[in-house]
Structures are given as structure tokens and as C-alpha cells.
Amino acid sequence: MAAGTWFPDQIEGETVVLRRHVSGNLAAFRRWYADPEVARLARYQDAPMRLDEIDRFFQVRAIGPDSLAMAIHVAGSDRLIGSCAFSQLDGDNGSAMYHITIGEKDTWGHGYGTEATALMLDHAFRALGLHRIALTVFEFNERAIRAYRRCGFTVEGRAREAIWRDGHWWDEIQMSILGSEWRARQDAGVRSASRRSVRQGNPAVRAH
Ligand SMILES: CC(C)(COP(=O)(O)OP(=O)(O)OC[C@H]1O[C@@H](n2cnc3c(N)ncnc32)[C@H](O)[C@@H]1OP(=O)(O)O)[C@@H](O)C(=O)NCCC(=O)NCCS
């Protein structure tokens, strides 16, 4: 199914705006994914992607017809800072994997990743009607783990010593959130994301 039937053109939060990727975002992907510091946090291999791998990744995962990715822009300035996406969408079981990379390192720790994730969960559970969103994160990535916890993810398992990095073995942590848990947080008034407006880009999304 084409991505346009799954995502609106734009999802607006308080501090970030999620937009469909455009081909001009490739230059930013080339910078982000060639950065060893980003690779250290987000990649199984200890080295960044090669340029040809980044280009293929961008074509398939960011702007390809089956991609479920959104570009993260800072609200107001419109600056492009990262990308977030679902993969492995399993329609039979209502589940997907979640991924996020904020590649502009000077914007780490400003709350943007937390809000982008909250907006994606809001879309997954409210608009798409999914049942479960899961992710994996390296044990040493404390910033990511805190952001995920704040959005309602809980640890459900760990692959022990699955990652060799910085001269140590680290666990790969598995986290997930269920639709029922997300709704309970909404009912309890946990403010996960502000949705000032969602500009619908597709009738199939409007129909949800
Ligand atoms: C992980 C990522 C999405 C988080 O987004 P962010 O905008 O930087 O983070 P936020 O500001 O929204 O939230 C960070 C949380 O970690 C805390 N934090 C910030 N800097 C931290 C640090 N250096 N160490 C530990 N915790 C830190 C913040 O206090 C906040 O937690 P709190 O809300 O409980 O106070 C982003 O940093 C990123 O993309 N990093 C590079 C790639 C990556 O790690 N991707 C995830 C792979 S699983």
C-alpha cells in the first residue's frame, strides 16, 4: 500500500512538525548517517553507512512508495533535523517497529525527539488503529531510553550482550507500547502530543 494512504502530508506538534520527506532531504541524510556519533547510537555495525547505502536507504525507507517515514522539522523555523518511521508493518497483528534519528546534533536534548515520537504514536493508535508499536535500543543510549519511556514505552526484554561498542558488551533493549496502554495514558491526561492541526493529504487518512 502506498505510504500516502497511511500518512497525512503534515502532522503538527508544539515544537516539531512532521512532514513527508522530499527528494531534497537526501543531502541531510548523507550528513546524518555518515556521522560516526549517530552510527554509534543507532547502528549495529560500528561504522557509518557508506554513501551508496545511505542513498539506497533514503530511496527505499524515506521517499519510497512503501515507506512510512516522516521528516522532523522544528516548528517555527522549519529547520529539518531528523527522520522518524515505522517499519515491518504487520497488518494481521496490528504491529510495527518504530525508528527515529535526529541527525542535527545541536538539537539533541531539546524535547524534539520525545514530541516526534508522541506524534507518531498518536497517529499509529488513533488514525491507523494499530495495536502495538515496538522498538529496540542500545543499553548505553540513555537519552533515547528516557525519551521512549516518557512516551509510554516499557521494557519488555533484552538481548544480552548483543552489542560490542566502546570496548564493552551491551544489551540491546526491547521496548513496546500497546494501544490499550496508550489510551489509558490519554484517559489519565498524560499529555503526549499536541495536535494543533493535521493537514490531511489523503482521503484514506481522512476516512479513519
Ligand atoms: C534519541 C533521540 C531521538 C532523542 O531525542 P531528543 O530530542 O534528543 O531527546 P529529548 O530531548 O526529547 O528527550 C531526552 C530525554 O533524555 C534526557 N537526556 C538528555 N540528554 C541526555 C544525556 N546526554 N544522557 C541521558 N539522558 C539525557 C532528557 O532529560 C530527556 O529525558 P526526560 O524527559 O525524562 O527529562 C535523539 O537524541 C537522536 O535521534 N539521537 C541520535 C540517534 C539515536 O540515538 N536514535 C535512537 C536509536 S534507538
Keywords:
208 residues, globular, binds coenzyme A, alpha+beta, single chain
In words, what does this structure look like?
- It is a single chain.
- With 208 residues, the protein is α+β, with helices and mostly antiparallel strands.
- The chain has one domain: Gcn5-related N-acetyltransferase (GNAT) (Aminopeptidase), CATH 3.40.630.
- The protein has helices at residues 26-33, 36-42, 51-62, 112-127, 142-150, 179-187, 203-206, and strands at residues 10-12, 16-19, 68-74, 80-90, 95-102, 132-138, 154-165, 168-178, 198-199.
- Strands 7-8-6-5-4-3-2-1-9 form a nine-stranded mixed β-sheet, with helices on both faces.
- Helix 1 (26-33) packs across helix 3 (51-62).
- The two termini are 16 Å apart.
- The site of coenzyme A (COA) has 22 residues, from helix 2, strand 5, helix 4 and helix 5.
Structurally, how many domains make up the residues? 1
Number of H- or I-type helical stretches: 7
Number of strands: 9
| Alpha-carbon Rg, integer | 16 Å
Described by the principal axes of the CA atoms, the overall outline is globular
Attached small molecules: coenzyme A
**What name does CATH use for the topology?**
Aminopeptidase
Our measurement of the CA-to-CA distance between the termini, rounded to an integer number of angstroms, reads 16 Å
Order of strands side by side in the largest beta sheet? 7-8-6-5-4-3-2-1-9
CATH superfamily: Gcn5-related N-acetyltransferase (GNAT)
Order of helices and strands: EEHHHEEEHEHEEHEH
Mean pLDDT across the residues is 90
CATH class descriptor: Alpha Beta
Share in helix: 25-40%
Q: Roughly what fraction of the amino acids lie in strands?
A: 25-35%
